[in-house]
Amino acid sequence: MLDQALRILKDVFGYDAFRGNQAAIIERVAQGGDALVLMPTGGGKSLCYQVPALLRDGLAVIVSPLIALMDDQVATLDELGVAAVALNSTLSNDEQRLIAERIRRGEIKMLYLAPERLVQPRMLAFLQGLDIALFGIDEAHCVSQWGHDFRPEYLQLGQLAELFPKVPRLALTATADKRTREEIVQRLHLEDAERYLSSFDRPNIFYRIVPKEQPRKQLLAFLAERKGDAGIVYCLSRKKVEEVAAFLAEQGFPALPYHAGLPSELRAYHQKRFLNEEGLIMVATIAFGMGIDKPNVRFVAHLDLPKSLESYYQETGRAGRDGLPADAWMAYGLQDVVFLKQMLANSEGDERHKRVEQHKLDAMLALCEETRCRRQTLLAYFDEELAAPCGHCDNCVDGVQTWDATEPARQALSAIYRSGQRYGVGHLVDILLGRDNEKIRGPGHQHLSVFGVGKGRSESEWRTLFRQLVARGLVDIDLEGYGGLRLSESCRPLLRGEVTLELRRDLATKAPKSTSSAASQLVQSHERDTWEALRALRRKLAEEHGVPPYVIFPDATLLEMLRSMPTTLSAMGRVSGVGARKLERYGEAFLDVLGGKAEPASTPVDLRHELISLVRAGMTPSQVASQLKCTEKNVYALLAEAIAEQQLSLEQALDLPEELLGEVQDAFLDGEGELPPVAELAEQFRGRVNEGVLHCVRAALQAEFQA
Ligand code: ADP
Ligand code: ZN
């Protein structure tokens, strides 16, 4: 059995060995047993049902909650030469009938379905008349009513046990907690399922959490090291998403906004571009994520604090699904804490629920102020013990300095107490630093005994201290009033001198090591050209086939080509991720690139592709020119081509005032019949409109007439 499974793994998928529990799971299901699979994102869940599906007779039915995910999987299988289809609401009746016929004739090996479709009586009856190889239930945690992804339709999947008693079922999820696990077993009737629990560590992700000072500047410094990489920047509010996306575009980064307030078509369009193009940055609220299967997301940056470690783990987990180095980076400050606590206080729900949420937030804050290995702390929260510090997080790499903050903490607490427990951090810091201003004089705070006792420390040191006192729960925030600070019960031992306080020392932002990143060093500079050439070929093939680039080959496979430099087809066939079908289809083309026979990476098509990305991200022609290091004239020429092929609209491409644009259009349309050549109008607009603009407008009009 396992021999056969390994052969399929190699021939179809092009991989040499199973990972973690894959072999055991596949063996179990192939032999007809049920399984519950808990594996982190990127762990390789898909193979757990795809390989048994190929080992067993009949049709494998995979339940998945998201159309985008299904389409992605079907495209991937298609490229591998496996007959798979997704039945979803976007298909016409005729298309559906055609698929049903193909299934009946046994031409389809894997069928992807949304749960609500599977449980329709007609569908169940249809399937009962067939030979079913297995049921795979992906994202099985959707059955949990307590989880954040609850889907009522999932509850109905329980009936599969009764209707198909002989068909093996496997449920898969990346949600690890015990309660969800038990709920899956109970609701899906998986009492006899073997359980496979993997480590939830994501060893390829580097974790870094920095104190928030000038967040945009900090973000830019982080991104500057990752030019050309795809990533997600999470923000809390829609407004901030818009602002940050615009800011990044201005700074020359191809960034798109994503939040629930955008029209749904635009949202879908941005998501699609993120999946299909390389190197885009999605600036998003947490509305963006579920169903993002893009394997080569190289970083996830948080500009705001998530509300729990569950969220943090899940959101950062979208980086590096492909197993290659990736970064999780976050900037956090006192304002985040205030904001989240305020949200919590104003939220609906009973006291018990709020207490739970409060604990979750506290755990998140503790991770931020943690002085030990971040990964150990994070995994410990999920009941997993990591024996030694990981060596792959900021705390491990940079080391953490702690200091005895007992005395200044008492001074800070005293400043809060003596000023009446109603002032915010700004005012409290003014008191401690002895600043003589109107706001201090009003209430007479210049007479307080603590006035000026903190002159020995800088303002930022005091702010850090207050943040840490709040994070540790020694100080509360007055959430009904204006966010002033109050002493909490738990600070009494400190005030009474019964305990001391060790705190983390914030590193200076410019600490030399703080920018080092595994992900940014994925490809060495001398390999750049070949790497870009490989990516360019992949992009071209992806466009031809109408699939995302990673469906052609994942980054890991390109990287292995780059490192092993195969020169023959059989050597190419040994590269991990190159199965028989892909070798036949693409082997030669990639060998040519590696042998330097292909055209250089920067063919005009590539340049145009990049230009389109930049323009769509909101850059003006002159910004694009500086980004692509070419002349503006060149940019306009490429824009005109893109417009002619209707890849860009005139409005997207140009940054002209509407009226002026109208005037140019009118000038072209003034004559009878044929559009006049640009040269004829150049004089008329000299000094007002770049000649390139005229080319673009003409191209647009021409495209319009041809259509
Ligand atoms: P999950 O669904 O658990 O998030 P996937 O099934 O998408 O993970 O797999 C993540 C990546 O790892 C994919 O690119 C997949 O092809 C790759 N992968 C899975 N199993 C193996 C393996 N045994 N050897 C090499 N690559 C693998
Ligand atoms: Zn560590």
Automatic annotation (TrEMBL):
Family: Belongs to the helicase family. RecQ subfamily.
Record keyword Isomerase present: yes
GO cellular component: bacterial nucleoid; cytoplasm; replisome
GO biological process: DNA recombination; DNA repair; DNA replication; SOS response
CDD domains per record: DEXHc_RecQ (cd17920), SF2_C_RecQ (cd18794)
Matches recorded under PANTHER family: ATP-DEPENDENT DNA HELICASE Q1, DNA HELICASE RECQ FAMILY MEMBER
SUPFAM superfamilies: HRDC-like (SSF47819), P-loop containing nucleoside triphosphate hydrolases (SSF52540)
SMART domains for this protein: DEXDc (SM00487), HELICc (SM00490), HRDC (SM00341), RQC (SM00956)
Originating species: Pseudomonas kuykendallii
Protein's UniProt name: DNA helicase RecQ
Swiss-Prot/TrEMBL keywords: ATP-binding, DNA damage, DNA recombination, DNA repair, DNA-binding, Helicase, Hydrolase, Isomerase, Metal-binding, Nucleotide-binding, Zinc
UniProt xrefs under InterPro entries: DEAD/DEAH_box_helicase_dom, DNA_helicase_ATP-dep_RecQ, DNA_helicase_ATP-dep_RecQ_bac, Helicase_ATP-bd, Helicase_C-like, HRDC-like_sf, HRDC_dom, HRDC_dom_sf
Residue ranges of every copy of the HRDC domain listed in the record: 524-604
Domain Helicase C-terminal positions: 215-364
Enzyme class: isomerase
Keyword Hydrolase: yes
EC number: 5.6.2.4
Cofactor: Zn(2+); Mg(2+)
GO MF: 3'-5' DNA helicase activity; ATP binding; DNA binding; four-way junction helicase activity; hydrolase activity; metal ion binding
Ranges for domain Helicase ATP-binding: 26-194
